Amino acid sequence: MPESTIPIKNKGALWTTLLMAVAIVALIVVVAFTFNVLTIQALAGFNLKYVIYIGFGIVLLVVCDSLSTMVFAAASKVRIPAQAAIKSSFLRVFINMVTPFGVGGHPFVIAYLKDKGVPGGVGSSITAAKLMIVSVLVLVGGVVGFFWLPADKQVSDVVRLVFGISILLQALLISLLLFLMVRPQSAVGILTRLVGLFHKTKIAANIASLKNRTIHEAWLTRYCFRRYFRQGKALFLLGCLLHLVMYIVELLLLWFVFLGLGLPIALPTCLAIASLTLLLISFLPTRGGSGLGEGAFVLLFAGVAPIGILGIAVVLWRVFYSYLIALVGLILSPSVIGRITGRKKLIATDAST
Question: Which of 54, 100, 107, 213 is the most buried (most CB within 10 A)?
Answer without folding.
Answer: 54
